Amino acid sequence: MDAGSSRIAVRVGPDDFDVGAEIAALQAGDPAVGAVASFVGYCRDEGGRLAALELEYYPGMAEAEIGRVAREAAGRWPLLAITVIHRAGRIRPGERIVLVAVSSSHRAAAFSACDYVMDFLKTRAPFWKKEHLAAGDEGGWVDAKPEDEARAGRWKGKTD
Amino acid sequence: MSREPVLIRYFAWVRERVGLAEERLALPETVVTAGDLVGWLAERGDAYAYAFEAGDTIRVAVDQLHIEQDEPIGRPREIALFPPMTGG
Prior knowledge:
The structure holds two protein chains of two kinds.
Chain A: E1 7-13, H1 19-27, E2 35-42, E3 50-57, H2 61-76, E4 79-87, E5 89-91, E6 96-104, H3 107-124, E7 127-133, E8 138-141, H4 146-153
Parallel strand pairs in A: 1-4
Antiparallel strand pairs in A: 2-6, 3-5, 3-7, 4-6, 7-8
Helix pairs in contact in A: 2-3, 3-4
Chain B: E1 6-10, H1 12-18, E2 22-25, H2 34-42, H3 46-51, E3 59-62, E4 65-67, E5 78-82
């Protein structure tokens, strides 16, 4: 599939985003769109333990790596557009961290591509989370989860 | 003979343990792969030994592209070393 025909937008930075506006923008003016699938990731409070997350990233590479993942998805499914927004800096429980939104003519491609982009964003995009605890202490760095690698591994050889 | 100095960047707990966000280092010719680089850095002192004590878990990006530790680093402008990623 020609990844070049899909519109890909990637933003990384401290600013929050408007989910409704981003989804509307994916559809706007394109009568070929039949489906938009989206994922929004939030900061949890971990049962009251967490005061905030500090998100560090590698400027330049983070945007580039997310772009590469999005282009892979666009080469794999017939997508019209992909928007990925990832926040950085200090984020409190209840605040948004990440948005992946994908438009396509049909829902199956949109669902699968959204899932795929999120799986590889987690394992390949250079971001790291540090915990700040409600008790006032600086917590540790969050460890990578083996199940995230396993989820990304599911796509190997899979066609949809 | 040494190569031209390369910008080495550190992120997350690798940065904290080394105590630097970046530095420019002339890598010896014996450093061929990303794994060689991790091993060489670990020998640079206590802070580096701590940062790279679990060296095989460290991720390496050459000119902002991931490489495996058994792959050659070539002659890049920039090399980054960091822990497994936890975004999303």
